[in-house]
Write a structure and sequence with these properties.
This protein has one domain: 3-Layer(aba) Sandwich (Cobalt-precorrin-4 Transmethylase, domain 1). The protein has a 5-stranded parallel beta sheet with strand order 3-2-4-1-5, sandwiched between helices. Helix 2 links the parallel strand 2 and strand 3. By secondary structure, the chain is α/β, with parallel strands linked by helices. The protein is built from 6 helices and 5 strands. The longest helix is centred in the C-terminal third of the chain and has 16 residues.
């Protein structure tokens, strides 16, 4: 059974965030924030990417295709071809390396990650939330 992890940035320090990823042997982080910015400088896309690179973790931004805010609602968005194609890309990434999807919410139950992981779970993936 393939495995994918999820994590939220919340108000974590960059050190705590990277340590959690390393504890779970994450090799690639897939950012699914629709707007990859933060009130915390270290979670802004450019800074996060650099910190991860310096820690030996690859970074992929996929918020344009898997990001949360959708005018039609995320539950409707998951039915679209764009979502299905983006999910295929995510699955191929996660099959090659220990992967984790991230967004800003600490708990995936408060975030669109829950919809992504529900679809993956129905497709036979094991989901592990790093809280």
């Amino acid at each position: 059974m393939p495995v994918i992890f999820t994590i939220g940035t919340n108000s974590r320090s960059i050190e705590e965030f990277i340590n959690l990823l390393k504890e779970h042997q994450i090799r690639i982080l897939v950012d699914v924030r629709r707007f990859p910015t933060s009130r915390f400088e270290h979670f802004k896309k450019k800074n996060l990417s650099l910190s991860l690179e310096n820690s030996g973790i690859d970074y992929v931004y996929s918020g344009d295709a898997l990001g949360g805010f959708r005018e039609e609602g995320y539950q409707n968005y998951i039915k679209t071809e764009q979502f299905k194609k983006a999910l295929q890309v995510l699955k191929s990434i996660a099959r090659d390396k220990q992967a984790c999807i991230m967004c800003a919410e600490k708990e995936s139950s408060n975030c669109h990650r829950k919809f992504i992981t529900q679809v993956l779970s129905l497709q036979g993936w094991q989901i592990i939330d790093i809280v």
